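Reply to dn_fold:

You asked what the input looked like. This is it:
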Amino acid sequence: MADVTSNTPIASRSRPPRAEYSVYFVIIFLAALPLATLAFGLAALRGGNIDKGPVARAWSQARIITPMIFSA
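and this is what came back:
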């Protein structure tokens, strides 16, 4: 029996993001921004973790959610 896992081909070079990906990213970022601002404000009032500002929080959420849409 052959071991096909030892000679797996290397994935093709990564392509630059397509326009569709960028459009979805912007839409998700803009939707996440008000919620991230609210979460940041509540964390600041409670004395919680305010390491990242609202823009960084929204950017992180958009970076997590957008690839999920394209992998489905």
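The helical segments are 19-46, 54-71.
Hope that clears it up.
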